[in-house]
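Lecture 7 notes: from sequence to structure.

We start with a single chain of 124 residues. Read the sequence below before looking at the structure.
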Amino acid sequence: QPQLVESGGGLVQAGGSLKLSCLFSGGSFGTYHMAWFRQAPGKEREFVGLIGWLKRNLDYADSVQGRFTISRDNAEKAVYLQMTSLKPEDTAVYYCAADASGRTLRSAHEYKLWGQGTQVTVSS
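Now the structure, written as tokens:
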């Protein structure tokens, strides 16, 4: 059974950087599109970005475009979210998600495979 485990969250000052990791196990990682979402207290889970299984498809939310970069290492079965120029409004629990349908999906409701999340807190 495929599983996802995120790591790398923490407390950082505004303007700082942080890199999140998501490790995949229990399946064929190379067939999954991978996405990052985040959820702040009292808000719905929102799309951050995604990377296709061939790395060609990259998509980012407008709010993080130019500041966040998603990458993946298919040999290591890992996907990464490099976050720079962090803002207090980036504070949230960050989740990775996986989909094997071949579609590039921005809606959290479409994903069935999720990690447990990692907290990112950006202080002003």
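The two ends are 40 Å apart (CA to CA). Keep this in mind for problem set 3.
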